[in-house]
Write a structure and sequence with these properties.
It contains four helices and five strands. The chain has 108 residues and is an alpha+beta fold.
Length: 108
């Protein structure tokens, strides 16, 4: 299982998880109750109900680099281009825009 904290303007907005069933994004309860709460994307409005999908949500997939930058990430970190969550975790901590992706270390 791979997980990441999703930050919006430096504040924890939620957690993105990849497991054997696909992907889940859940907004953080404290974030939802905050006056600073806003949706990370128009396609993912604020809700306490988790979002589930078999494929990585298009908003997050759109954060992953393309072209020559993707080639560099694949070669340097030896990540398969089809492993979208690993690419997101490796490349998107400090992306352009308001959203950042912070990997959560796996515990054994």
């Amino acid at each position: 299982m791979k997980q990441a904290i999703i930050n919006l303007r430096g504040i924890k907005a939620g957690v993105l998880t990849e497991d054997e069933n696909g992907y889940t994004f859940q907004y953080d309860r404290d974030f939802l109750q905050s006056e600073l709460a806003e949706a990370i994307s128009l396609t993912m409005p604020l809700t306490s109900v988790p979002y589930h999908d078999k494929m990585l949500f298009p908003f997050f997939d759109g954060l992953i680099p393309e072209g020559w930058l993707l080639d560099i990430a694949e070669k340097n970190w030896k990540i398969d281009a089809r492993d979208r969550m690993s690419l997101l975790l490796a490349c998107c901590k400090d992306c352009i825009g308001a959203v950042g992706v912070e990997p959560i270390k796996e515990t054994e």
